[in-house]
C-alpha cells in the first residue's frame, strides 16, 4: 500500500470522513470528486485506489494536489471493496464516516441529510434508503435481492431496515473504527450491519436518491454477493457467540 498524497492541513473538526473505494472508475471519479467538494460540509475525502489500471489513480492524484480535503491511498493490487474500505476507515478523522462508491449511483447532495439526521436523532448509525426514496433499480433481481437481504437483517436483528445493501451507511467514526471488520469484498455491508446490531445500535433510515447503472456500464456486484450477505448475517447472529466487543479496536 502506498500514499500518493496525504492531505495537508485538514481541519481537525471535520464533520464527515467520506471513504471512496475505487477500482477502474476513470469515467466517473472526476465528476464525483467535484460534487463531493461542493457539498457544504467540513469533509475529509479518502479515495482508496484498489489496483486500478485505467488511469483513475492519476485523476485522483491531481485532485489531491489541488484540494487539501482529498487524500489518495493506493493498493498495488486489487484486494476487494471490503479491504479498500478498511484502509479508508483506518484514516478517517471526521466525527462521522460514510462510504461513497465512485460510480455516481449515489448523490453526494444527500450527505447533508444523513449528517443532519444523525445529529438530530443522536444516532450512531444512519442508512440512506433507496426504497424510502422510491428510486428505480437497473434490474428487478437487484431490487428483490436487496429486499430479501433487508428482510433477513430486520428479522434476525429486530430492526426495521428497508435497504440493507445501500452504499450510504453513515456511522460515528469511533464506532466504525472499533468494529472487527474482516470481509474483503462486498460482504462488508452485511458484516457492518450485523456488528452494529449486535452492539445494540438502532439503525435510522432516511430516503435518498439513486441513479442505477447497468452491468454494461460497469456495475460489479453479482447475485452471489446477495447470498453471501445473507450468510454473513446468519453467521454473526448464530455462529459467532463471542461478543464483538472482545475485538474492539482490532482490524483484520
Overview of the molecule:
The structure is a single chain. This protein has about 250 residues and is of the alpha/beta class. It has one domain: Spore Coat Polysaccharide Biosynthesis Protein SpsA, Chain A (Alpha-Beta Complex), CATH 3.90.550. It is built from 8 helices and 8 strands. α5 runs parallel beside α8 and α7 runs parallel beside α8. The protein is globular. The chain starts with a strand and ends in a 13-residue tail after the last helix.
Mean pLDDT, as a whole number? 87
**CATH domain topology:** Spore Coat Polysaccharide Biosynthesis Protein SpsA, Chain A
Report the total helices.
Answer: 8
Q: Please trace the helix and strand order, writing H or E for each element.
A: EEHEHEHEHEHEHHEH
According to DSSP, the number of beta strands is: 8
Shape: globular
State the strand order across the main sheet.
1-4-3-2-5-7-6-8
Second CATH tier, the architecture:
Alpha-Beta Complex
Number of domains: 1
Kindly list the characteristics that best describe this protein.
disordered C terminus; 252 residues; alpha/beta; single chain; Spore Coat Polysaccharide Biosynthesis Protein SpsA, Chain A
Summarize the structure.
The protein is 38% helix and 17% strand. The chain has 252 residues and is an alpha/beta fold.
